[in-house]
Design goal:
ten-stranded mixed beta sheet, 26 strands, alpha+beta, disordered C terminus, globular, 19% strand, 713 residues
């Protein structure tokens, strides 16, 4: 980590952490959960799989971008003053450190512990004769027909190696010579990675294939077989809409869909940014693969643990609840609990009684947001529904509800963001499905990603139209709603709903407006709105009035926002920042940020909500929404933040904030040098892990019923 700075100002590189290294510091906090002996065994295995996913994503997104800058000869320096070459080298060192730790934990701790628990992950060489015969029969019946060996010789070029797939480098003897021929065998990804054994345990699929290749090459059994895996960059020649011109053809129906589809094809063939190999691979073979894949030795990573570590998430051991955390079951919001079987009209009646604040996954998404949209779809008084889709589930009940609404003659408009990274293909499919059902579908805003999380329902009541809205921090995805921590609000407050209607007009009608009364909207003026609030807090502090900022967000990187936070801190404003992932602001530096605390929460749920609180001289302002304090959120995306006005909602949010502040078990405090230290309860102190406390609070509120206050923990 960087040495703690002394006497620095906001214009100096030392005032900031490196973006890439800060993101890897988040990965290190996840890695600590792999190492945590207090967690049940299969939870540790799950986090090892998540580490594999995090590293894969980092290479595809961030390393890919850095390598492109290096190839272009860019000397552009990062916030902390590093060149792309220096960033790339520093990232490689940290990834090697994390990978070495993962090797130790997976091989020397998790696998022995799994064996002790009666669910070993065997190597094929360790199987007895009966188990070997079992997996050989499985190979013949379920795997061998799928395999397609591809040789490399004068008539057969080196084959295309797909992203993140497992491959066997097979060396076959050439009869009558001392030479060998390279044959690539792809490990099929539509077969279970870990094959269950008759008695207990699993064996990796790639080892079963390697051990039975004599059946594939009966005349000349392989001399050697070695596993390798390739990671490609997330971008091809184009990057979504970023390079689309301003010509009129953009408005041609279907063109943006075709452009994104072309980008997906380009991504498939994007350059290789990492070659993973197992330790036993001969250096000559590794060098030859590097030449074929056009990578250098610095792009080769030798790993002792499973290549494709993310496949540990597929390990099916659901019959061992003793090795998992107790299952989490969301509870219905106390005001919505009795509406599951009520008429659609009753749901809207409840919203008119006052805003409904939602906290997922502690409170049920299905009985709140999904119920809101399903009620709107079948309510005869609802005339129109509008929704943004950034990511959604594979078999989405929300999309089905929208289709049902269109079939019933309602006006349905959906903004589908088809450049949502890694969700482009399913979003295109959903968009086309909805179009076929009669839904009006728009595919985003030119040059901007649509990251807004908003739904709008227009209902006729007593001869007049009333709007109802949902605004939140999470995607309309019933699957991740059980795994991601998010907040949202159901409201029919006229000014808020009017602003939401304006947002949809801008998204679907290509209009632009600055006439928002309540919402903070990016890229129009959101950054300015946040900066003005920070300056207001500084004025309160200088005048001796109560001041303070609390921000819970996923990432913090925008330089203008950080400079303003430094200025606000120098004015004496206490600032608490709960930042899940990367944070480029350096806290606790005398003369720069000594009133700033930064901490991160890592637990069983992915922290995903954005909550902002400004003390405002003793009249606190609370806001939630879709945007982090990232340059991309504030400049390159359509985002919304909504102030919360309902007194009961504000009390709920205050209780949530206080619970985050009291966490002494799952929070990690950032030090001025960039290191993170996990909080531990002091002797005799009650353990408070915020996610456990919030789950308990949701259960208590559900049991108590509506209108009964429940303390923070």
């Amino acid at each position: 980590m960087d040495a703690p700075p002394v006497g620095i100002g906001p214009d100096q590189p030392e005032a900031y952490f490196n973006r890439e290294l800060s993101w890897l510091a988040f990965a290190a906090r996840v890695l600590a959960l792999v190492e945590d002996p207090e967690l049940p065994l299969l939870e540790r295995v799950k986090f090892a799989g998540i580490m594999g996913m995090l590293h894969d994503e980092f290479f595809m997104k961030r390393v890919s971008g850095l390598k492109k800058l290096v190839q272009k000869g860019s000397r552009r320096r990062s916030l902390d003053g590093r060149t792309p070459e220096e960033e790339l080298a520093a990232c490689r060192d940290e990834i090697l450190r994390q990978t070495a730790t993962l090797d130790l934990r997976v091989l020397d701790e998790l696998r022995p512990a799994l064996e002790d628990a009666g669910i070993p992950l065997y190597d094929h060489d360790a199987l007895d004769a009966s188990a070997r015969e079992h997996v050989r029969r499985y190979f013949v019946a379920s795997v061998m027909p799928i395999l397609t060996p591809l040789a490399v010789d004068a008539e057969h070029p080196f084959p295309f190696i797909s992203n993140l797939g497992l491959n066997l480098a097979v060396q076959l003897p050439e009869p009558g010579t001392a030479r060998t021929r390279f044959v690539r065998v792809k490990v099929p990804n539509n077969r279970p990675r870990f094959i269950p054994l008759p008695r207990a345990g699993f064996v990796p699929l790639e080892q079963v294939i390697a051990a039975n290749l004599d059946l594939v090459f009966p005349s000349h059994p392989p001399e050697s077989v070695h596993l390798f895996r390739v990671t490609r960059g997330a971008e091809g020649e184009r990057d979504g809409r970023a390079d689309v011109g301003l010509d009129d053809d953009l408005l041609e129906p279907g063109r943006i869909v075709r452009l994104v589809a072309d980008d997906l094809k380009a991504r498939k063939f994007a350059g290789v940014v990492r070659l993973q190999v197992e330790p036993g691979m001969p250096q000559a073979l590794a060098d030859w693969l590097c030449a074929q894949l056009r990578v250098g030795p610095q792009d080769v990573f030798v790993q002792r643990h499973f290549l494709g570590l993310s496949d540990l998430l597929q390990l099916d051991v659901s019959d061992r609840p003793d090795l998992h955390l107790p299952p989490h079951r969301p509870v219905a919001h106390p005001r919505l609990a009795e509406l599951a079987t009520a008429s659609p009209e009753a749901f809207f009646d409840e919203i008119r009684r006052g805003d409904v604040f939602l906290h997922h996954p502690y409170q049920s998404f299905d009985s709140s947001v999904l119920r809101f949209l399903e009620s709107a779809a079948v309510d005869p008084d609802v005339l129109a529904i509008k929704l943004t889709i950034y990511r959604t589930s594979k078999d989405s009940p929300i999309v089905r509800a929208l289709a049902e609404a269109a079939r019933r003659g309602k006006q349905v408009a959906v903004l589908v963001e088809i450049t949502a990274r890694f969700d482009e293909a399913p979003n295109i499919a959903w968009g086309q499905f909805l179009e076929n059902e009669g839904v009006h579908v728009a595919y985003g805003v030119e040059r901007l990603k649509t990251h807004v999380k908003a739904a709008l329902v227009i209902r006729e009541e007593g001869g007049e139209l009333r709007r109802y809205a949902h605004l939140g921090t999470g995607n309309y995805h019933t699957g991740t709603a059980r795994l991601y921590e998010d907040v949202g609000v159901l409201t029919c407050e006229p000014e808020v709903c009017d602003d939401v209607a304006r947002i949809f007009n801008e998204l679907t009608g290509a209009s632009s407006t600055a006439a928002y009364r309540r919402l903070l909207v990016a890229p129009t003026f959101m950054r300015d709105a946040f900066v003005s609030r920070m300056r207001r807090e500084a004025e309160h502090a200088r005048a001796g009035r109560p001041s303070g900022i609390f921000a819970k967000l996923n990432q913090l990187q925008d330089r203008e926002v950080m400079r303003e936070l430094y200025a606000t801190s120098r004015a004496g404003v206490p600032i608490d920042l709960v930042v899940r992932g990367l944070c480029c602001l350096r806290p606790g530096v005398p003369g720069l940020s000594e009133t700033v605390r930064v901490w991160s929460v890592v637990g069983r749920f992915l922290e995903h909500s954005r909550i902002y609180r400004f003390e405002n001289g003793g009249d606190p302002e609370y806001l939630i929404g879709s945007a982090d304090w990232m340059k991309r959120n504030l400049e390159n995306r359509v985002e919304t933040i909504v102030p919360l006005a309902d007194p009961e909602v504000r009390r709920e949010v205050e209780a949530i904030i206080e619970t985050y502040r009291r966490d002494n078990a799952s929070a990690w405090d950032c030090r001025p040098d960039g290191s993170y230290v996990r909080r531990r309860p002091a002797a005799g102190e009650t353990r408070i892990a915020v996610q456990d406390a919030l789950a308990a609070r949701a259960r208590d509120r559900r049991s108590a019923g509506p209108g009964i206050p429940i303390p923070a923990v």
